[in-house]
Structure formats: structure tokens, C-alpha cells
Design brief:
Belongs to the HAD-like hydrolase superfamily. MasA/MtnC family. With about 230 residues, this protein is an alpha/beta fold. Strand 4 (about 180-185), helix 8 (about 190-195) and strand 5 (about 200-205) form a beta-alpha-beta unit. It has 2 domains: about 5-15 and about 105-230, Rossmann fold; about 20-95, Transcription Termination Factor Rho, Rna-binding Domain, Chain A, Domain 1, CATH 1.10.720. It has helices at about 20-40, 45-55, 65-75, 80-95, 105-120, 130-140, 165-175, 190-195; strands spanning about 5-10, 120-125, 150-155, 180-185, 200-205, 220. It has 8 helices and 6 strands; from the N terminus they run βαααααβαβαβαββ. Bound molecules: ligand L4RZE5RM and magnesium ion (MG).
Length: about 230
């Protein structure tokens, strides 16, 4: 099989540790959510998130305090809801800018992404984190600014990561046939959806969570053992 023309990568559990997202990013957003909404609640982007959250919850009459409580519940449940993800990105922006957060990216992922980019492979991100949040984790990363290696970013505004239609949309946006794109993720439901859309896939098993048995995707433990230039699926 030919070399893929593009790689699309997940973040949490793939380029970056699950522990960083769960133990640093999510608690930071939870801690600052109420204060952020109180301070920025009149800004159009924040009002839109609050309104979208109420619509999504089917509770259009909820006040700001009730909406914050709803968003905190969603955060605790790790709901991949676009208004929550957008707000998280806005809150993290302050943390990154103040130097309170540095984005975790595994050294092997940073090294490989830079090498693949230098060799001309087109690289994209598809994460449930908002596009703004994706640019922050890679822009303020412990491995330096990785944003120059990426040609584009996709988030839940393209669609849920567990639906094949989302990957079809990404392939159309990249103007590539799905079989020319390799998708990397630690989540086999996402990999199944990508495979259903015709993408090539590889599962990252970094040992933080067990992959379900019998998923059928090629498995690698880090990016070092992943060579898209020799990839066969
Ligand atoms: C952009 S870093 C925060 C990631 C995040 O919010 C999340 O829900 C993880 O989603 P992923 O699709 O990267 O597993
Ligand atoms: Mg993931």
C-alpha cells in the first residue's frame, strides 16, 4: 500500500498524556469556570457558549449560575459538548498565557511530528478539545511550539469523533481520498469510525488505559515505532 498523504492525530492519550488532561487541564477549567463566566459573561463568545449549553440541555430558561453548574456537571462527566469545550479553551488560554499551564506532549510524538513534517507529510489534529485549545496545547508545549508542523485542526464542530461522517467531512476538507489518510488515536470507537469512513488507522497504547480486546487496529506504543512512510494497514 502507498504512503499516506496526511496524518490526522488525536491529542489526549495519543500525542499527550491522559493524566495531563484529566489532572491538570480539566481541574484548571473547573476551578476557574464560575469566576471566568462572572468576569467575561458579557462577551459575545461566552454568551454564545452559555446559550448553546442551555439549548443542548433543553433548559432555555436557565440563568448563568445554573448554566455554570450544568457545565461543571458536564466537565465531571467528560462530556464532549461543543459549548463546554469552547469555554474550556477560553479559560485555558489565560492559564497558558500566565505560564500556569504548559501543554504536555510526549517527546516521541514531538520528535516524530517534526520529522514527518520535514519530510513533507501533511499533519492535522482532530480532537474533542476546541481548535483554540488544540493550538494552545501544541503552541505552549513542554516540547516547544509545535504549531508550525500542523496544516489544520478539526474539533467537535466537524462532528463527534465516534461518527464515520465526521471523518468523511475531514477527508473532503483535506481534498484527499480517505484511504490516503492515517488516523491515530487511543480510542477504538474513534478508530472504528475512521476505518468505516475508509481511513487507515493505528491505535496508540501508551499503557494509561487498556484497549478493548479484538479491536482489529494496528497497535503501537509510541510514535517511535510508527513509521507512516512504511505504513500498511
Ligand atoms: C486540546 S487538549 C484538551 C483535550 C480535551 O479537551 C479532550 O476532551 C480530549 O479529547 P481528545 O479528542 O483529544 O481525546
Ligand atoms: Mg484520545
Amino acid at each position: 500500500m502507498s504512503v499516506p498523504k496526511a496524518v490526522v492525530t488525536d491529542i489526549e492519550g495519543t500525542t499527550s498524556s491522559i493524566a495531563f488532561v484529566k489532572d491538570v487541564l480539566f481541574p484548571f477549567a473547573r476551578k476557574h469556570l464560575a469566576e471566568y463566566v462572572a468576569t467575561h459573561g458579557q462577551e459575545a463568545a461566552v454568551r454564545q457558549c452559555l446559550s448553546d449549553a442551555r439549548t443542548l440541555a433543553g433548559e432555555p430558561a436557565l440563568g448563568d449560575v445554573g448554566t455554570v453548574a450544568l457545565l461543571q456537571r458536564w466537565l465531571d462527566e467528560d462530556r464532549k459538548a461543543t459549548p463546554l469545550k469552547t469555554l474550556q479553551g477560553l479559560i485555558w488560554a489565560d492559564g497558558y498565557a500566565r505560564g500556569e499551564i504548559k501543554g504536555h506532549v510526549h517527546a516521541d510524538a514531538a520528535r516524530a511530528l517534526r520529522e514527518w513534517h520535514a519530510k513533507g507529510l501533511r499533519l492535522y489534529v482532530y480532537s474533542s478539545g476546541s481548535i483554540a485549545a488544540q493550538k494552545l496545547i501544541f503552541g505552549y508545549s513542554v516540547e516547544g511550539d509545535l504549531t508550525p508542523v500542523f496544516s489544520g485542526y478539526f474539533d467537535t464542530t466537524t462532528g463527534p469523533k465516534v461518527e464515520a461522517a465526521s471523518y468523511t467531512k475531514i477527508a473532503q476538507a483535506l481534498e484527499l481520498v480517505p484511504g490516503d489518510i492515517l488516523f491515530l488515536s487511543d480510542n477504538t470507537a474513534e478508530l472504528d469510525a475512521a476505518k468505516q469512513a475508509g481511513f487507515r488507522t493505528a491505535a496508540l497504547d501508551r499503557g494509561e488505559v487498556a484497549l478493548p480486546p479484538g479491536h482489529g487496529h494496528p497497535v503501537v506504543h509510541d510514535f517511535t515505532s510508527l513509521d507512516p512512510f512504511a505504513h500498511v494497514s
